[in-house]
Design a protein that fits this description.
Layout lengths: L1 E5 L8 E5 L9 E11 L1 H8 L16 E8 L11 E4 L10 E5 L3 E3 L6 H4 L3 H14 L7 E5 L4 H12 L3 E6 L2 H9 L4 E4 L5 H8 L5 E6 L2 H9 L2 E9 L10 H6 L3 E4 L7 H17 L6 E6 L3 H8 L7 E5 L1
Parallel strand pairs: 8-9, 8-11, 9-10, 11-12, 12-13, 14-15
Antiparallel strand pairs: 1-2, 3-4, 3-6, 3-15, 4-5, 5-7
Helix pairs in contact: 3-4, 3-9
Length: about 325
């Protein structure tokens, strides 16, 4: 089978398509014939070799995929060959024609959700859910700012917050992105490249500020975020690409909290709730992944370049 392999850490050019042996499942494992693989920012961070998690070389990137169960090992009872599934992690990497997963790493993919959409479920939606409900403890009636709302996690957050009865404000840097943000549930959309856009945010909230900010680029926005929080407001740092200087007094004056999170550090009891919430959201249609761009598996390098460009517009996926 074909798989993308990383033999050395570095830029997008280290992603190479190679021929590797077809995998065979052992007890408790599932082999998924991958139809689409999700491309996530964490994949790019790991590829550079500077991320906290550093896999042994060589490796195949990716954890999010969707496809058909091809074979199962002994003692697998939750799925069978022919089932449509999406993955919540893999043992062998998702950027491949086949992926080996633990039985617990595959969940049913409803018929109304495409494989490309299924590849955009786990990391974006689980991250957004954990940030919104377990880290920020957001409540119906609160005002939420999704700072950088046109990417995979941002869209997931918009849909969840709107469905939960919150007032939702989203930002995006392009006209196309802002249209998407409105389509996906935001009550208001702002251009985060426009001077004074946070002044407009304060006008929208009557000078009160927002209760929760989901922050996708903290190294650019965190200092500004603290100035637009309401009393008791919370910033959840979901994405970050560098350092930033902040004035802690801005947080002190508002009794505010800055909350970091990674999906990898999610406790088991939270994971159980997230799995249940995502299953219900996909089934009822309140969660609906938006695919922005599709690339062939052989063009993983191009996908990683596009991933880090400004102006996100939905999920990037690789097709096998």
């Amino acid at each position: 089978m074909k798989a993308v392999r990383v033999d050395e850490f570095g830029g997008p050019e280290v992603l190479r398509l190679e021929e590797v042996p077809d995998p065979k499942p052992v007890s408790g494992e599932v082999v998924v014939r991958v139809r689409a693989a999700g491309v996530n920012p964490v994949d790019a961070y790991i590829r550079t070799g500077t991320y906290a998690m550093k896999p042994a070389l060589p490796y195949t990137p990716g954890s999010d995929a969707a496809g058909i169960v091809e074979s199962v090992g002994a003692e697998v009872g939750r799925v069978k060959p022919g089932d449509r599934v999406y993955t919540t992690g893999t043992l062998s990497g998702a950027y491949a024609e086949r992926a080996v997963c633990k039985e617990s790493q595959v969940d049913p993919l409803p018929e109304n959700v495409s494989f490309s959409q299924g590849a955009g479920v786990w990391i974006p939606y689980a991250t957004a859910y954990r940030g919104l409900f377990f880290r920020a403890h957001a409540l119906p009636g609160e005002v939420i700012l999704v700072h950088g709302a046109s990417g995979g996690v941002g869209i997931a957050a918009l849909q969840m917050a709107r469905a939960a009865g919150m007032t939702v404000i989203g930002t995006a840097g392009t006209e196309k992105g802002r249209s998407l943000v409105l389509e996906q549930g935001a009550h208001h959309v702002l251009d985060h490249r426009a001077p004074g856009y946070l002044d407009r945010l304060m006008e929208l909230t009557g000078g009160r500020g927002v209760d929760v900010i989901l922050e996708m680029l903290a190294n650019i926005n965190l200092a500004k975020d603290l100035d637009v929080l309401a009393q008791g407001g919370r910033v959840v740092v979901i994405g970050n690409r560098g350092t930033i200087e902040i004035n802690p007094r801005a947080a002190m004056a508002r009794n505010a909290s800055i909350l970091g999170m990674t999906l990898a550090a999610t406790p088991p009891q939270e994971l159980n709730s997230i799995h249940a919430a995502l299953a219900a959201g996909l089934d009822t249609g309140t969660m609906w992944p938006v695919v922005g761009r599709e690339f062939p598996l052989a063009e993983a390098t191009r996908a990683h370049v596009a991933l880090m460009e400004p102006g996100a517009h939905g999920k990037i996926v690789l097709l096998t």
